[in-house]
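Run log // design_07
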């Protein structure tokens, strides 16, 4: 199974993640009831998360439904993508908790609810063919998107994470549908615009206007905005020079930063 190379700042298994890329209010996150492992015997195979992960994912998807996620494309995609393959091996057993987890370089893989919610809102009532993700991190959200979007463009500004995402995605079925680039996603990807949807996985004080101009008319962008206090913002392009803005949930995300980090 694909495993990302250990990042310089990857923490150990006892690490408590920063509260990043998570919702602040709403249903209390709860920990999956993982059954106690059977007593080890000399002949028993080692515990293998891969064998159990489908069931753990089904529980995660069930919990997302209970938390109000109804888009069947998103739920099916999250059932299909092995989230534990996108985190450090030491954290794999926690991959199906409703939590953000560290991925190295001070960044996090988004909380499952956040991924499900952002994608559901971005594509509500639409069938986007080409979507841009800013802040690919380890590549998980791009892989989820690629389960139901034919063309996914994802950008990451930290070289080490870009490399990890490339490795992680190379081992998934999403491979051919994600075009990953290393660069500053605040600039968007002009040469591939307009997009039928844009998802930003890091919080800027203001949503970059360049991204708004790369939305197709009728398409939606969802992004966290703010510094001390952050909100998810939904922006729909309603005309050539018209955008409609709506404030959604309180969240806490890692910062959107200009330029690149090598
Ligand atoms: N999409 C990820 C979340 C990763 S965290 C997931 O699937 O869970 C957000 C990421 O945004 C970090 O990796 C951070 O390095 C990246 N980021 C921040 N500012 C950026 C920018 N201007 N361009 C591209 N990526 C950026």
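design_07 sequence
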């Amino acid at each position: 199974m694909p495993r990302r190379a250990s990042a310089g700042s990857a923490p150990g298994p006892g690490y408590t993640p920063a509260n990043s890329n998570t919702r602040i209010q709403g249903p209390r996150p709860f920990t999956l009831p993982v059954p106690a492992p059977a007593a080890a015997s000399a002949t028993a195979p080692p515990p293998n998360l891969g064998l159990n992960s489908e069931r753990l994912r089904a529980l995660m998807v069930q919990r997302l439904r209970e938390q109000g996620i109804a888009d069947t494309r998103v739920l099916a995609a999250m059932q299909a993508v092995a989230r534990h393959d996108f985190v450090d091996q030491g954290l794999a057993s926690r991959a199906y908790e409703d939590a953000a987890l560290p991925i190295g370089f001070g960044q996090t893989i988004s909380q499952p609810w956040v991924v499900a919610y952002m994608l559901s809102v971005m594509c509500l009532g639409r069938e986007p063919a080409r979507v841009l993700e800013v802040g690919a991190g380890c590549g998980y959200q791009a892989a989820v998107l690629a389960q139901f979007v034919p063309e996914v463009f994802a950008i990451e500004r930290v070289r080490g994470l870009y490399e990890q995402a490339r490795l992680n995605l190379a081992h998934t079925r999403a491979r051919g549908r994600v075009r990953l680039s290393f660069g500053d996603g605040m600039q968007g990807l002009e040469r591939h615009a307009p997009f039928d949807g844009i998802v930003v996985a890091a919080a800027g004080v203001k949503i970059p206007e360049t991204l708004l101009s790369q939305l197709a008319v009728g398409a939606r962008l969802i992004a966290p905005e703010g510094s001390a206090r952050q909100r998810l913002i939904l922006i729909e392009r309603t005309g050539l020079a018209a955008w409609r803005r709506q404030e959604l949930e309180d969240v806490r995300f890692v910062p959107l930063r200009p330029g690149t980090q090598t």
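The radius of gyration is 18 Å.
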